[in-house]
Every structure is written in C-alpha cells, then in structure tokens.
Amino acid sequence: MDERDLYRAKEAMQSAMKGPTRLVLIIVAVVLFLLFLHPLVQIGPGERGIVLNFGAVQNYVLEEGLHFRIPIMQRIVPADVKVQKSITSAAAASKDLQEVTSEVALNYHIIPDKVNSVYQSIGIHFKERIIDPAVQEVVKAVTAMYTAEELITKRPAVSDAMKTNLTERLSEHNIAVDAFSIVGFSFSNSFTEAIELKQTAEQHALKALRDLERIKIEAQQKITSARAEAESLRLQRANISKDLIELRKIEANIMAIEKWNGILPQVTGGGAIPFIGVGDIEKK
C-alpha cells in the first residue's frame, strides 16, 4: 500500500466521523459520563432524603422513591424516619432519699418533614446528644417527686409523668415520642429487705384478720343455731296440753295393737288376760 492509499483511508475515516456515527458516539459518551456521576438517587421505605447544595442543607426534603440530582452540585443524605427503640438506665434518688436505678424503654421517630432541620442542628448522632441526656434528666426529676414505695405502687402514674415530660423536651428538637415504659426499678439491698419484711408482716396480719373473722362468723352461727333451738323448745312446751298427752297415749296404744300377732301369753301374773290400753280407751 502506497501513500496514496493511506491518505484515502484516512479521509474515509474522517468523513465517517462527521456523519451520524459521530453524533451517536458523542451521545453514548455523555450518557456514560452522567451515569458515572450518579444523577439518580433512590429513597427507600421509611426514609427521607436531605438535599445538600455544595454542602448547604436545603429547606425541602425528598420523599420515598426515585429522584434526580444535579451531579457535583448536589448530594443526597438518606435519613431513617421509622420508629426506633432506645433503652436507657438512669440512677436517681427518690423523695425519701432512697437510691433508685431505673431502666426505661423509649420508642421514637424523627418528624419526617423536619429531618433536614435535625440533620442541620444536631447531626446523625441525635440519640447520644439529645435523647439519652433528656431521658436521664426526666427520670431524675420525676423520681424525686415520689417515695421509693410510691414508685412501685404508683408505677403507671410515674410512667405517664415521665412520658409527658420527655415528649415536651424532645418535641423541641423535632423528635416525636411514640411509646414510653418503665422496664424496672432497682433499689438498695437494705430497702429491698425492708420491703420484703413489710410484705411478710402484712400477709401475717391479713391471715390473722381472716382467722378472726372466721371465728366470729362461726360463733355467730352457733349462737343463732342455739337461739333457734331454744325457741323451738319453747314453742313445743307452750303447745303441750292435757288433750295432747291423751292423744299421744291413744296413738301409742293403737301402734301396740297393730304390732300384736293375736297370740295370748301362756302365763299371766294374776290369772287375767291383759289387754293393753283397754282401761285407757274406756276412760276415753
């Protein structure tokens, strides 16, 4: 191949690049470049997208789904807005100066429309910076309002007071409280032993009281039964008369006659044949 042939081939390639093929190659190159810059971003379920323009937080939030971002200029930070759980232990003193360790469980979530404000003012470590200190402070403040015994007997009221105070504190930072519960209280060994002794004494006193009530009821039943029996005897004595006595004798004679088999005794004391109740019947 001489120089003329090489020149002709070069011209053919240049002419081909000037046609539609060159335009297609340019489009493909642009698309590949854009894909390399990741212009699309997907926000998953239970998330929101925080938009940053050259690092500055914008005043709007991306919802769930697929969104377009301006490459290089914009960066999207996904934020979880689902309900989360936090368990915290807090040491405090009760109203009667008893040491109390409380373990509480908190369910919370970031208000979705305010996730950009939370990111801008607190950052992603909001649990360590806001939630845990707020729980510690609220537990100490509410615990100091009740005695150690009341913390046990009035547990629902204590839990409601803690939840109300914590909701007010966290709402200032755009964090919503979904649920709050006291997992348990722990007291000093001496106080725990005193509680156990008190409960044992109360149980013994309650048993003694029940036994006393049972004895009283049984005695009252016996008295009532004796009174009823005495009243029955009195009525029977009041109803006994001469006619009633004679009637009872006649009834006894009739029963004796009904039982007689018709055979006279072989030997009699006075030689006469006895006839039971005849004299009484004749007298009647």
Short recap of the structure:
The chain has helices spanning 3-17, 20-36, 115-121, 126-143, 148-153, 155-171, 189-239, 242-259, 278-283, and strands at 40-43, 47-53, 56-62, 65-68, 74-80, 84-93, 99-110, 175-187.
CATH architect. name of the domain at 84-187:
2-Layer Sandwich
N- and C-termini, Cα separation: 174 Å
CATH superfamily of the domain at 84-187: Band 7 domain
Order of helices and strands: HHEEEEEEEHHHHEHHH
Radius of gyration: 52 Å
Q: Identify the CATH class of the domain at 84-187.
A: Alpha Beta
CATH topology value of the domain at 84-187: Tetrahydropterin Synthase, Chain A
Strand content: 15-25%
Strand order of the largest sheet: 3-2-5
Into which percent range does the helicity of residues fall?
40-55%
Strand-pairing-aware structural class: alpha+beta
What value does the average pLDDT take? 80
Low-confidence segments: 275-284
Q: What is the number of helical segments per DSSP (H or I, 4+ residues)?
A: 9
Give the total of beta strands: 8
What kind of sheet is the major sheet? 3 strands, antiparallel
The coarse overall form would be: elongated
